[in-house]
Design a protein that fits this description.
The chain has 437 residues and is mostly helical. It has 18 helices and two strands.
């Protein structure tokens, strides 16, 4: 492999423009999370207005991930090839178009297509933020700043829970999602105006690399290099197991579960679930700081999965807990998901600069695959376990049905603990030899 550290140098210092660039890219990540979790606060409305059941809601919601998940690899390759500015601008615009389609749709299939467009655009958000982070900031700050980027996703998810539920209750889901589309167009204009691909201006990776030999890495060679590493797959599986509980519980099925379990309103249940995003926001930078301080990656990853397992078991299977304990449980579930953000620091450690975008894309594909797989799976299991009860035109599912259907989440945490304890290779926070500057 051609050594690229002379071509794509890691910055030595932080600039004001770099901070502005990262804020805007992270704002897109925040925006896409509002879109991503929005389904959770309107499950009842969609069942009633579109005449579908839990399986239908799970399938419609999963269309977001059917686009998002496979787009991660192309997104990483495109960032390595063309740079973030144009790709981010187009991606936000596609998200906005998806929001418009969703809000104007008159049936389940058109709504699903709207979710699909949102997923296509959103696929570029997190990767773009991390790619810009590698270009604008010194490598020693990566774990902490990646955690701060993840914090923006938590802010977006918080807005997508209780505040969005209140907006849907007041204005209806169609008007609320349409307004999100308008916000997306405004963000796209700001990104095009401010963001630059790197400290040297608008040069893309390909332009930076024009003096490299014909042996330079093509997109296919970058992908092969990343995929042939066993650690790529093991870390991807850990990331899948770490983030799937967030995509399944607070993002979608946790809200109707809490409504049924505790008899609270949808807005109240949304507020409880939003504690998970507070946990993600707090935990993501903290786990990065802890990792850097102890110069370890795998131990924090194991601890994160262990905390998630204990908290999920308590919330799911202990009946009639005081609500403050449920709040705490959701907070701990969010804290445990911070392991997903630290996994990208290990990706950064293990890959040279020329392939880091591709490697990040692969790992993020595994992160979000849990939504594509488990959201509809839980919905199908709820349909299978349904006793035929309907209230106000909406199917109602028993608590035990939810508990059985969501069993996949504690299992995911167990798998994550095993992988982080036995199979992941510790990097000791040291960069790949071709990635250091």
């Amino acid at each position: 492999m051609t050594d690229t550290h002379e071509v794509l140098k890691t910055p030595k210092s932080i600039s004001l423009l770099g901070i502005m660039v990262l804020i805007l890219a992270s704002s897109f990540y925040m925006y896409e999370f509002v879109l991503q979790v929005s389904m959770g606060v309107m499950t009842g409305d969609l069942m009633r207005d579109l005449n579908i059941d839990a399986a239908g809601v799970g399938l419609v919601s999963a269309f977001y991930y059917y686009a998002y998940t496979p787009m991660q690899l192309p997104a990483g390759l495109l960032y390595d090839r063309f740079g973030p500015r144009a790709l981010l601008t187009m991606a936000v615009t596609v998200c906005a178009v998806g929001a418009f389609l969703f809000s104007l749709a008159q049936g389940a299939l058109p709504v699903a297509f709207g979710r699909f467009f949102m997923g296509i655009g959103s696929a570029f958000a997190f990767i773009g933020s991390l790619v810009l982070l590698t270009r604008w900031f010194p490598a020693r700050h990566f774990a902490m700043l990646a955690g701060l980027v993840q914090l923006m996703s938590s802010v977006g998810a918080l807005f997508g829970e209780a505040p969005l539920a209140a907006a849907v209750e007041r204005f209806g889901w169609r008007h609320t999602i349409f307004f999100l589309g308008v916000l997306g167009l405004g963000l796209a204009l700001l990104i095009w105006w401010v963001v630059r691909n790197g400290p040297n201006g608008n040069a893309t990776s390909a332009q930076h690399s024009k003096d490299m030999s014909e042996d330079s890495l093509s997109e296919l060679r970058r992908l092969k290099f990343v995929c042939k590493q066993s650690q790529t797959w093991l870390l991807g599986l850990y990331s899948f197991c770490s983030w799937a509980p967030i995509l399944v519980f607070p993002s979608l099925w946790g809200i109707p579960f809490l409504v049924q379990m505790y008899g609270v309103s949808t807005t109240k249940a949304s507020f409880i679930c939003s504690m998970a995003w507070v946990g993600v926001g707090l935990g993501s930078p903290l786990i990065g700081i802890w990792s850097e301080r102890i110069q370890r990656r795998c131990l924090p990853l194991f601890v994160a999965s262990f905390i998630g397992f204990i908290a999920m078991m308590a919330v799911l299977y202990f009946h009639h807990l005081p609500l403050w304990v449920v709040y705490l449980g959701l907070l701990l579930i969010g804290l445990s998901a911070a392991g997903q953000s630290l996994s990208f620091a290990l990706v950064r450690d293990n890959n040279p600069t020329a392939t880091v975008g591709t490697a990040i894309g692969f790992n993020n594909m595994m992160v979000v695959a849990g939504g594509a797989l488990f959201q509809p799976l839980v919905g199908l299991m709820l349909r299978f376990l349904w006793d035929g009860n309907i209230q106000n035109g909406v199917p109602v599912y028993q608590i035990t049905s939810y508990q059985i259907a969501i069993t996949v989440l504690p299992i995911s945490y167990i798998v994550g603990m095993i992988i982080s304890a036995k199979f992941l290779k510790e990097s000791y926070c040291r960069l790949h030899q071709n990635n250091a500057s």
